[in-house]
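Hello,

Our lab assistant flagged a job as stuck in the queue for most of the afternoon. It eventually completed. Since we weren't sure the result was trustworthy after the delay, we are filing this so someone can double-check. Below is the sequence as submitted and the structure that was eventually returned. Let us know if re-running is recommended.
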Amino acid sequence: MHRKLYISIARQLCGEATETESALIQQWCKMSSANSRLYDKLRLVLTKAEQLPGETPFNTEKAWQNIARQIHRAREETD
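-- returned structure --
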């Protein structure tokens, strides 16, 4: 697949394709069932990716405090 077509498909899946790009993709999908299946798979991947949870905030200070407590406990057990 050509780079330009991939870019157009990405834009289409994100809702940013021009009418010309949309028509090109529609024509490309009609050219073969393999093209149509590939487009459907790409759309599915994007849909699944959008359903993934966002980044979990990481509290560095809390993590260091937790590690410090564990180190302190380990030292107490060895004394």
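-- support follow-up --
The delay was a queue issue, not a problem with the job. The result is valid. The mean pLDDT is 85. The radius of gyration is 25 Å.
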